[in-house]
Amino acid sequence: MAFKFTIQRKLLLASATLLIIPWIGYQYIQEMQNYLQKGMEDSLLEKVKLIAASLHERPTLFRNQNGKVHNTLQPITTTQHLYVRPLKSRIKLDGINDDWAGFKSKTLSYDKNNDLLKNNNADLQYKMQLGSKKHSLYVFFQVTDDITVFRKRNSLHIDQSDHLVIAMQNRKGEYVRYILTARKPGWVSAYRINPDNSNAPEIRIKGNWLTTSSGYNIEIRIPTYLIGEKLSFAFADVDDRQTRKIKSIIATSGIDSLQQLGTIVVPSVQVEKLLAQVKQKNSRIWVVNSYFHVVGLTDQLVNEQAGYPEAVNQPEQVQRSIISGLMHLLYQQFMKQPSNIFIDDLSSASQLNTPEVVSALNGKAMTAWRSTPDNRVSILTATHPVYSDGKVIGAVAIEQTSNNILLLQNQAMEILINLSILTFLIAFIVLLAVAIRLSARIRKLRDEAENSISQDGKVTGHISNSNSNDEIGDLSRSTSDMLERLGQYNRYLESMASKLAHELRTPITVVRSSIENMEHTNKEDKTVYLQRASEGINRLNNILTRMSEASRLEQTLQTEDTEVFALNELVQGCVEGYQQARAEQGYIFKTDTNQPVTIKGSPDLVAQMLDKLVSNANDFSDTGTDIIILLKTDANNAIVRVINTGKPLQHEMQNNLFDSMVSLRTRKTEQPHLGLGLHIVRLIAEFHHGKVKAYNMDNNQVCFEVSIPLYS
User: Fold this and answer.
1) Alpha-carbon distance 640 to 644, whole Å?
2) Contact predicate 687/666, CB 8 Å
3) Helix ranges restricted to H, 300-343
4) Residue 112 to residues 220, 244, 317, 348, 699: CA-CA distances in angstroms?
């Protein structure tokens, strides 16, 4: 069977070209993304390996102020740890936080959950920012307090008003404590609390107290040489000016003993110089000790100086055309853009205990991706252990954002969209040309169809057969064949007048001659002529009855009830009836099954259909031959075949035998035949959802076959 290149396949093939570029482009972008991510991971891992190598066998970088090396991996406790970021700008002690704009993301907050007195009604809360600059530690506190109580002017007590407690371990490892209090807003100095609870001024710790609408701000400076490895801050809140009883103490950590203090790391000059040599743009480097405490850190990933989201710094763009520029602006509206502004959840972290850092401190380098809380960018982290004497004393971590990958993806996506649009335009032109060609062919077929039939319904022309192997070609050939059959049918109808005249002439002549003869005969002889006239009238009635038989059957089929019955029993009973009615004709019934062959339908209609088939076989069967009625089944259908031996069917008429008023009889019979019997057979078969066909067999046999679905 030849392959048909149909219209549907042509259009499908043409449309499929539209999917090639987007699909290939999508695969390319996916592969590019995976390739870039893998390349970025490998590159970052090599960088962190080199940085870690520069820290190997340099344990002094991981020593605390007491000279001890953290070389034992211990779990992180809840004790507060602070890593002091270096300040890039000069800080003015004025109580105003405009100097701290670049440290906004590093703000730490404390409230009643940090109250050492466990007072659920504590209302004081504060935010803290701290950084280092030229051997000094700067701290900015923004305190929210509904009632501010200052120190009495002549009072010697420094702890009976709102005050700040600074508890630390000094360079000698001793526990010391300082209190900052004020009689009024302005400059304040610290007092050192001695072991005997006496106090002495500490002029090296300076600060400024500024009253605000919601409370007060305190900005202080502490020389770093005073600070050891532990430091805690606490605000004591006094609301009652009479009793001056402390209501709550909101602290960064415990302040009553050296063990309760939080740890602090001020970046050493050595670590800062080393990281300054290896740091890269758009990356951040962490150095942590074995306690997960940050001991070194480079620039942040977030551009904190900007007050609005901005696209990542892109390389110089080639001059764009107006259309290209407009398209680029359009793409930016729906494609995710690289950004330097995002929520960095580690911006203020002083201890790093992510899985990749844990892996590095366990001696295994690792890379991992994470999304920022706002899902604006993804961050890749690569970690590597730092060794000394064969032991892990710390780890190095490098972070980079996915901005560069996203930028390349967007550029690739723009190219993909542009190519897709170009492909769509080309495909549209191709499909338009195909549609124009198809329309022209269809219009030609329409014109030929209109011109082939005259106004009075006569077939006057023909439709040319197309050589095209698609649906329109099939339609033109089918229409041409249909027109040829319609012409044959019209010629048959035109000859129907002569057929009816032939059939009606004889009975009319019999009736007329009988009436005329009765006028000239005696009364006794009129009986013969009356009988002949009655026979002629009956013949006329039979002709009219057969002409209306098909239309009555169509009306009957619309209301006929159906039932489930055994077809083999019905056929066998009908064959036995034929054998009794016409003993001179041989009828043979055959079947290939002994099981009941059940169908759903009308037994009377099936019997009528079989009568028509057998009657047709009787008329065309050669004398002395048997008529075979065969019943068989296949997987889904019951098949009835009526086979007779006689003149073969004409090939061109095999498909028209079951049309209305088609007859091939050439000899005269006792009953009139108007070509409706086989048409009735087709109507009954279609009522039972079956099919009927006629074909020639070997040995001059002709078979009429009816297939009806089995009932299951």
Assistant:
1) 13
2) no
3) 322-334
4) 23, 19, 53, 21, 110
Q: What angle do CA 59, 65, 70 make, to 5 degrees?
A: 40
Burial label for 19, CB within 10 Å (0-12, 13-18, 19+), is: exposed
For residues 40 and 54, what is the distance between their CA atoms, to the nearest angstrom?
21
Query: Distance (Å, rounded) from C-alpha 126 to C-alpha 113?
Result: 12
Q: What is the pLDDT of residue 67?
A: 45
Contacts of 554 (CB under 8 A, 6+ apart): 683
Distance CA 283, CA 299 (A): 7
Determine the Cα angle at 206 with ends 203 and 210, to 5°.
140
Give the span between the Cα atoms of 534 and 265, in whole angstroms.
Answer: 132
Q: Comparing C-alpha atoms, which of 370, 283, 366 is closest to residue 45?
A: 366
Contact predicate 689/607, CB 8 Å:
no
Contacts of 411 (CB under 8 A, 6+ apart): none
694 and 632 in contact (C-beta within 8 Å)? no
Q: How many angstroms separate the CA atoms of 679 and 482, rounded? A: 18
- Round to whole Å and give the CA distance between 706 and 548: 24
Q: Which helix (H) or strand (E) holds 201?
A: strand 199-211
- As a whole number of angstroms, the distance between CA 670 and CA 666 comes to 13
Helices (H), 111-236: none
Q: Kindly state the average pLDDT of the residues 120-125.
A: 91
Distance (Å, rounded) from C-alpha 165 to C-alpha 181?
Answer: 9
Kind of pairing between the strands at 627-633 and 637-645: antiparallel
Find which of 411-415, 535-539, 602-606 is predicted with most confidence, using mean pLDDT.
602-606
In contact, 183 and 151? CB cutoff 8 Å: yes
Spatial CA neighbour of 572 closest among 604, 609, 610, 600: 610
Q: 309 or 9, which is more confident? A: 9
Would the pTM count as exceeding 0.90?
no
Is residue 124 a contact partner of residue 235, using CB atoms and an 8 Å limit? Answer: yes
2-17: buried (b, 16+ CB within 10 Å) or exposed (e) per residue? eeeeebeeeeeeeeee
Q: How many helices (H) and strands (E) does the chain have?
A: 10, 25
Burial 264-290 (b: 16+ CB within 10 A, else e): bbbbbeebeebbeebeeeebbbbbbbb
Helix (H, G, I), strand (E, B) or coil at 484: helix
Show the domains of the chain with their CATH numbers.
1-63+330-451 (no CATH), 85-265 (2.60.40.1190), 471-538+540-552 (1.10.287), 560-709 (3.30.565.10)
The 10s digit of each residue's pLDDT in 493-503 is: 666 666 666 56
Instruction: Please give the Cα distance from 241 to 227 (Å, whole number).
Output: 34
Question: What tokens were used for 226?
Answer: 């005073």
Distance CA 382, CA 80 (A): 26
